[in-house]
Amino acid sequence: MNKAFTTSLAEKLQQFDFQQISENHTNSITFLKQEHTHLYIVNLVPMQGMLNSDERKAWEQMYIQRIKKLSQQAPADRIMIIQLYITETKGDLYFQELCQYPFDPDQEMYFIPWLIDLEQKKLRIPPNQPKKILQIEKWIEQILDPQNTKETTKVMPLELKSTNLLLTLSLIAIHGLLWIWMERSGGSTDTKVLLQFGANEIGRILYYGEYWRLFTSMFLHIGVMHLLYNNFSLYLFGSRVEKYFGKMKFLIIYLFSGLVGSALSVLLAYYMGNLTNLSAGASGAIYGLLGATFALGRRTQRSIDQLSAYTIAIMIVVGLGMGFVYSNIDNMAHLAGLLTGYLLGRIL
Length: 348
Prior knowledge:
This protein is α/β, with parallel strands linked by helices and 348 residues long. The chain folds into two domains: 3-144, no CATH class; 166-347, Rhomboid-like (Rhomboid-like fold). It has 13 helices and eight strands. It has helices at 3-15, 53-71, 91-98, 136-144, 166-184, 191-197, 202-206, 213-216, 224-245, 247-271, 283-300, 309-325, 331-347; strands at residues 19-21, 29-35, 38-46, 78-87, 109-117, 122-124, 200-201, 278-279. It has a six-stranded mixed beta sheet with strand order 1-2-3-4-5-6, sandwiched between helices.
């Protein structure tokens, strides 16, 4: 097996969260990745070590049994075994053999043989097999012939920008201390206390020019459950944004998303004629962090500390859906903060 090729492909697979697992039966190299409810297994196999097709098929059956045992540790409703047979000679002969492999889309375990012809610098996929899987085919083609292969998608590396969570933990502490102060001053659900501490009220903002409330309301919470839920979400997404965007960009995303969320929430309430509407909370800013995390996952095409773009998308749908079920949730602030954070996450 060509060492330079396998090294390059192994590095690419590991860059996109594939984990290498040991393999003792042949000179093959195996990689594994859990993606949503699918388990992807990529196996790099030298064809020269299996000149006899019967020998190869016997080994494949043994390998499939081992994968079934392995899959019990990582449950999945679909298992995709991508067999990358690598050859430096006799590419046409091997390809004819691989074309005889059936593909049944109704099976729970797919066995997908591809041929990597190093002599012709080609990835050869049998006509009855899937042609695209997690962009693996693009990575192979780029490694085989980098000069004639265009990178269709620009992928940003996931780089650690901060080694501590000072801002995230500080914001959580500020929220908690302000909530305790409000409780000791009469209660965090009391209207007078909320207004005294800087909650949003449309009339005071638009008619009395108290625009500072758009900012101060971001640090207040109405009741203990509001505080706990927002602080949990702040840690979940804030920790990732602070680590991978850095502290300055974290502040930009958090504050700007919160301000935009507050402003559009106030404008919507004004449009609806609800001049006494009272609102407070960090939800707009936190949804901004959620949007930025989603953008980062899309840009890097990787899970962000085990949080995939697919999982984040589900959280977004559930979170916004709850806003339509419960009347006391400010969906406009959530949506505005989310879109602002996503755009900033794409730009910064």
